[in-house]
Amino acid sequence: MKKPLMRIPYTGPLPPATIIPRYANTPAGARHALTRFLSAPKESQALASSSPGHDSKKTVILTGAGISVASGLADYRGTGGTYTLNRTYRPIYYNEFITNHEARKRYWARSFLGWTNLNRARPNAGHIAVKELGCMGFISNVITQNVDSFHSAAHPELPTIELHGYLRALVCIHCHSQLPRSDFQTSLATLNPQWAAFLEEMLATGALDSENPAERRAKGLKSNPDGDVDVPDAPYTTFRYPACPTCLANPPTLADGTQGFVEVDSDGAWSSNSNAGVLKPAVVMFGESIAPDIKNAAEEAINNAGRVLVIGSSLATYSAWRLVKQAKERNMPIGILNLGGVRGEENFYAGLSPSNDGEMGVRCEEKADEILPMVVNALRGSQALATAEMQQAVNI
């Protein structure tokens, strides 16, 4: 049996956080520790000797779903997260999506219902704070596991590596052309008028106003991350989705050298008689590999920075965990800002000096949208003070 190219998320129990430094168990303490972490001028000798040419003063940020919860999106492993409340939840796998017409119907029906919330959500104060930290010169790169594109929207000028792609675009698995997700939503509504009416009814009654799993469950829905709304016993097999317009106009040559063909019904819905023209979200699904250039860019971002700060991630996904492991192997200071346990965190802080005041490592449990703006203000105040002192010295 072929081993999956992308490992499934870690689902074991996560240990409770050990706050580092100990005083970082309050908002004021966490603000101070994070400020020290981001502004520390020193680095370990081991890091300096192993990575000549890196910028020891810059931090690479690694974010997960937790940073987007304040934008109204669903979490994975928080107290109200999908994996916490819905133990039977199973995301669709890449091979299942590309080979199974019925699985695609179910996927696109649930995505159709969940797209409105995802599309209207906006970056929150945590994302804006990351932008401010970048403008102030504390951040070199942002690496995100999220597929909501909030980082790109909040700070397009800050280099951002989207490990798992983004939901706001589709890509054809045969000709590789792309299509905006908003256009696809319009096509889905046209092909599925009864589903479109059902969606309008749910929006009108407020059934989709919250992505909190408990509130959704009370309304007869199952809420999953990434714009996935499951309606138990819904007739998913009736759902229709369009073919790739590029493949429909110019059938591609398939990977095995044979000629592809696309057949649609009278309304333009993809037919199972086709062997090409299948669109998928431009995200890395489970069982699908991350593109080599994205993987290399993320590794290079770690190698070129002086420290890494994890925000809103339990590192349950291997693609994120291995980057922090890489940082640990390079003796980089590691910071984690996350509500709840983080995979392997006890190893990331092993050997940390008891005298550490946050400059060589920090672990705190605060809401990113609340604590990060406080950190920005503290650092901005420090920069203003340093500028004033320098100006005074020049005048003397």
Automatic annotation (TrEMBL):
The question of whether Zinc is a record keyword is answered with yes
The signal peptide, as residue positions, is: none
Domain named Deacetylase sirtuin-type is located at 33-382
Which SUPFAM superfamilies does the entry link to? Answer: DHS-like NAD/FAD-binding domain
Q: Does the keyword DNA damage apply?
A: no
Gene3D superfamilies in alphabetical order: SIR2/SIRT2 'Small Domain, TPP-binding domain
Please name the catalytic residues of this protein.
Answer: H164
Residues binding Zn(2+) are C172, C175, C244, C247
Listed A to Z, the keywords are:
Metal-binding, NAD, Transferase, Zinc
Family, per entry = Belongs to the sirtuin family. Class I subfamily.
Protein name as it appears in the record? Deacetylase sirtuin-type domain-containing protein
Q: Which organism is it from?
A: Stereocaulon virgatum
Q: What is the lineage of its organism?
A: Eukaryota, Fungi, Dikarya, Ascomycota, Pezizomycotina
